[in-house]
Description:
Elements: H1 2-20, E1 28-35, E2 48-55, E3 61-67, E4 76-79, E5 90-92, E6 95-96, H2 112-118, E7 125-130, E8 138-142, E9 156-162, E10 172-180, E11 183-191, E12 201-202, E13 205-206, E14 212-217, E15 223-228, E16 234-240, E17 245-252, E18 258-262, H3 264-272, H4 279-285, E19 287-291, E20 297-301, E21 308-312, E22 318-322, E23 337-343, E24 349-356, H5 361-369, E25 381-388, E26 391-395, E27 405-413, E28 426-427, E29 430-431, E30 438-442, E31 445-449, E32 455-461, E33 468-475, E34 481-487, E35 493-500, E36 506-514, E37 522-530, E38 536-543, E39 549-556, E40 562-567, E41 572-578, E42 584-587, E43 602-607, E44 637-642, E45 655-661, E46 667-673, E47 685-689, E48 695-702, E49 711-721, E50 724-730, E51 761-766, E52 772-777, E53 785-789, E54 795-805, E55 810-820, E56 823-831, H6 845-850, E57 857-858, H7 877-880, E58 884-889, E59 892-895, E60 900-906, E61 912-918, E62 924-929, E63 946-947, E64 963-964, E65 970-971, E66 976-978, E67 983-984, H8 991-994, E68 1008-1009, E69 1017-1018, E70 1137-1138, E71 1146-1147, H9 1165-1172, ...
Parallel strand pairs: 57-63
Antiparallel strand pairs: 1-2, 2-3, 3-4, 4-6, 5-7, 7-8, 8-9, 9-14, 10-11, 12-13, 14-15, 15-16, 16-17, 17-18, 18-19, 19-20, 20-21, 21-22, 22-23, 23-24, 24-27, 25-26, 27-32, 28-29, 30-31, 32-33, 33-34, 34-35, 35-36, 36-37, 37-38, 38-39, 39-40, 40-41, 41-42, 42-43, 43-44, 44-45, 45-46, 46-47, ...
Amino acid sequence: MKKYLHSLMxxxxxxxxxxxxxxxxxxxYVYSRTYLEPVTVSNSEAKQAQTVTYIDGLGRAKQxxxxxxxxxxxxxxxxxxxxxxxRQTINxxxxxxxxxNNGGIYSTPDMTGAMxxxxxxxxxxxxxxxxxxxxxxxxxxxxxxxxxxxxTGKTVKYTYQTNGDTEVKRFVVSxxxxxxxxxxxxxxxxxxxxxxxxxxxxxxxxxxxTLYKTIITDEDGNTATKFINGKGQTxxxxxxxxxxxxxxxxxxxxxxxxxxxxxxxxxxxIEAAGGTISSSVLNDLCYQYRYDNQxxxxxxxxxxxxxxxxxxxxQDRIVLxxxxxxRTLNNNFGAKGWIFTKYDNFGRTVYTGFFANTATxxxxxxxLNSMASNAGNNEESSxxxxxxxxxxVYYTKKAFPTGSMTILSVNYYDEYPQDTPSKTGLILGQELxxxxxxxxxxxxxxxxxxxxxxxxxxxxxxxxxxNWTRDYFWYDRSGRExxxxxxxxLGGYTITETELDFxxxxxxxxxxxxxxxxxxxxKVKERFEYxxxxxxVKHWHKVDDRAEQLLTENTYNELSQLINKKVGxxxxxxxxxxxxxxxxxxxxxxxxxxPNLNGKLFSYRIKYNQKDGTTxxxxxxxxxxxxxxxxNGNITEVDWRAVESIGANPPLEPKRxxxxxxxxxxxxxxxxxxxxxxxxxxxxEVMDYDINGNISNMxxxxxxxxxxxxxxxxxxxxxxxxxxxxxINDLSTNxxxxxxxxxxxxxxxxxxxxxxxxKRITSIKYNFLNLPERxxxxxxxxxxxxxxxxxxxxxxxxxxSIMECGIKxxxxxxxxxxxxxxxxxxxxxxxxxxxxxxxxLAVSREMSRAMEMQAxxxxxxxxxxxxxxxxxxxxxxxxxxxxLSFFPTSEGYYDYKKDQYIYQYKDLYGNVRxxxxxxxxxxxxxxxxxxxxxFGMNHLKTGNAFYGKRGSGYKNYKFLGKELQExxxxxxxxxxxxxxxxxxxxxDPLSAATLDPYGYAYNNPMFFSDPTGLYGAQxxxxxxxxxxxxxxxxxxxxxxxxxxxxxxxxMASNPGSVLPSNCQLCYSGRxxxxxxxxxxxxxxxLPPNWNCGHCNDGPIMYVGGAGDPWGxxxxxxxxASTSEEPSLKLAALPLLMVTKNSDDALKxxxxxxxxxxxxxxxxxxxxxxxxxxxxxxGTVVVHHAVEQQVLKRYPGIVTESEMHSLDNLRGIPKTINxxxxxxxxxxxxxxxxxETPNPTKQDLLDQATLVDKKFGSQFTPKVx
Length: 1264
């Protein structure tokens, strides 16, 4: 009776609330309300998100309204239209209204609001032309805005054909099987069949009409063609650079498994050899994969790297992996061996490490197959620990391997380990979960909750020594992480405590930090204020007992796009402007033409389809490389004006870059245009590429020291072996820029650059994560630069030794920089020489050669660096490097020595342009300013770009907000980047997807950004797939079922919302190693963490490691959407971020709208399904899209109501149930459970979507 009474009261409450709305009763509708603060009864005054969707007589949505969703409390309406065939060919943009109808339908939505946020346009919609066939394939697609409307021809066009007679080569694979150590070993070999030997080809080409052919033409006329066979496998992706086809072939074995990817350069060599495929072509240029007789990938080889091996247990979990370096003694462990991973009964990773063993892969696999005791190969917790390097590991050694182990990481779940720091029962007033189940009453329902299923602690060992970092995690009664306690390798700690609101947004964060336990320490407090829709409005920051500072105050337009940000309590007011497609167009637009920029320090304009400057400064020198208006998202020009000295106005004419692109959307030229002489070719960068996309030539100009005119500083010619550059010659013979001595460059077995003698770098040693551990520079006393990392790739320390000379003598100065949860410490020791002030030189000549020092003024050396050191001899100098130097904030950095907040203007790419703050006299000052070449090198001779003395200081964080090293390399996290060359020093671990082993940002740094060194992310679009990204219009490349698209620069909850910020909310006291990612309601924009130099400084995975044989890391995403617009794909705005959890993996979101959870009033899911589909009873078996066992595996993530809702149910015909569900879908989910021990709800939905995409056409009803 109580249950029914409770339900009746709820219904009456909802009915009363709906009466308060103005819902149109003559229409069918679906009304949704999400409270943003806790309530016990319906409350129209509470913070909430409301939507109503009106339905026509055919059950189709015809209008969607977000009620009072704008910052001003007005409605946003999205009309939905259909053509005469019921197809949605017009996709309207959301239209802000002038008021609210309280949910009532709009017969004619007001367009005034649209004009105010989008500008004047005749088409506030995207449009599709569909073919008149049952397939309804798209023939042409236009975008909102007059420049892209259907009539202009600036659209994306699709043509569907079949292949011709001699259009596509046919590669076949023959697998030779042998038995080695009782293991079946298959070696696939590709070939082009001779005439008469293959019924599917003639003369080595596919028979006419046997492949589907799709031609995609982007808005600028660039085309890409994809050929697909009848199985849906991509056979060929073809582009054309204007003179030749650029072909990439995908080759499959007899069992349908992809075994080879043959890039364009390999295709040309095979053609030149008359169809013969040599081993050198395969090893130097192709991607190769081998599988065992259970269809598991067991070996892979990327071009330029040695083979990598994988060994599985009986549960198909990867237990051992081995790369080329681990097969030698050239690794951290001084022995040949494997990286191992151990799992518990739930498939969660419990500990990993190095296993010293020289056995081959078949021998290792046979050992796993032969396990009789503990055949499941599961680890168990134990009260008797394994003791290693002074660390207690509370697990057994039952799983393989059982000996010769160096444990590197340990994860604990469910219960806290015995050495856990004590914790009170409250964190900022919030009660904690414990390992003991706690009885709770939630919404009148009795339940119990505990930390079961949650990660509780993680221990990570240093790679180069035996010290550990220990992390502990604390949760509130809802299972949300509200506290962390990290004990670093020096004995200090970082404790974070977070108060969350009802939706999970942080209200306040307290961070307590000590480098060592004996230190005094520092405490940072942050407060966050939100508006009625949980948009962040104010961010407050306080250090120790100093006065609280208002870091940021945000203002949004009616689409929730950030349009103004006041930083430093209005020290600078920064305006943002967008076009109709949501692309950022201006920073401080209205101030560009003012002589003094109206008190602003920086104004920036991005032009896409507008061209105002020079077409080509030298048609003879740069033939065909013209600046043209672009419509496909490429940037045509950027203009900027920046104050270089307070009180001095910059030139009224803006500086400008004009960009030229080839037919493959690669950047071929960046022409700098001096305001006083646009034709001078200053700071110009021009590139050529080989057929594989490697830079073959680079031309660069600059104004050098003691000169006022532009000169050629680089005319670089790159020599390659495969994709590895092996020498670089500078034909300009100019010592400025890159020296280009033509010296031989060598690589290790993993494809890592071992030296760069042109820069006098004689040796680079790497750890097992392929991160540089030691860089030796010739003639540099003290030996060079060393790095220390944890076993998950977190950088802990950098040491360098340089020579500095004073009045009397020279000294060797050794500097140690500690990176502890974002807090950066610098200390120095001096040896040799006599007395004398250290004031003459900041770096040795050798270090200067390694780094492009002409671009910088060294901090602490005259002329006096603004905002940093006092004049030579000042009393503060000695103390500066001895303690905490700085740490990041959401808007820049906090200079601890000066008690000064540093704020930053960043451009579209996250590059630091102007750093500024208040000095001790409370006056605005500029402390650093930078201009960049397109590929990231600083302009020379600017005079106001500073580099921190001895390689330390926040001013060294420049390009992408990342740290510039003494070698001139940028540390991007997973790899080191060389901006003067436009390439990386290490092989890309994700090149299986990118097919670009060493290149940066797909050779288009104006469109893509690569802030992690892993995967180029689109700069300025929303959830649309970039034309030039894999899977896009110009690069229709399939990677399994995952469409990889990570536009980290485009985070918002509405069409085109781009929120420029310096990592708002991403500082959590863990130094940007852990981003605070909110779970926003539908109307709330995601916290923007683009432009955050430290956001990706956390751990990285051993790519290709356990559960990741392809090298494409796990899927994670945050869904942010205010509409269901399929063309804009707003429901899948992807984030690229590093998270600190049990598997420490980089997360990429598949850019597709996926499965959703509804709700159910009954747990009898079969009855629910057949009630909705009565005719299917007896013909189908009912299954869950997100599997029912999730309720037990991951308690608390999904409710039973959601699990058994109709939205989560799938009907599989009985005739195929055994094959499809038991043999295929179940295997996919089992793999997911093994690889994702702690998924979010969205992880589960994304996984269900991938299954639906693959099998949905076989379900009844079908899932499209």
